[in-house]
Amino acid sequence: MRSYLTKKQIIMLKIFDWRRGVMPAEGMVLHDSLSIDNTATVRDALKLFNKNGTTNAPIIDKHGAIIAFLSVGDVLREFGNEVATAALADFYSYVPDLLFTEERQSEENRFRKILVQKVTSIATKRVVFVDASASFKEVCQALSERHIKKVSVLKQGKLIGTINRKDIVNHILVNLAE
């Protein structure tokens, strides 16, 4: 099996003591966390997601404290079901007299207004996080019980990184592959 982890990441993973089941969350953070500044717009966030190949990130204030969490799901909820309608309309736009209506123009204006809103206006305010000292079990519980894909890790109230489901799988594979 080919590992996509760096040598440093593998060394960090091997620190975990599976017999005792204790590895602080801080040791599981293998990458810098992508975060969104609270002054960013929805468009800024979507560009950031696209550039970094992710679909969610915590929103932080100027002090580095997490104040909300934004996901593509939050954006889609804001757009509503009409997003699919607009995408289909764009696909068939070669028939302008059928599609260029006041309703479509109004819909596009609504989408544009959403894109210039501050991310905090549509983000989830109840952020799930774990402390840097949280155990492997606690991280797994945070992800599974809340049905989320990524959990933020805080140390002294500041974001130090995130742990996602793929990180958990990598931990398991590296430590059980021996």
Automatic annotation (TrEMBL):
InterPro entries noted in UniProt: CBS_dom, CBS_dom_sf, Diverse_CBS-Domain
Record has Transcription regulation as a keyword: no
Pfam families: CBS
Keywords: CBS domain
Domain CBS: 28-85, 123-178
The protein's name in its UniProt record: CBS domain-containing protein
UniProt organism field: Mobiluncus porci
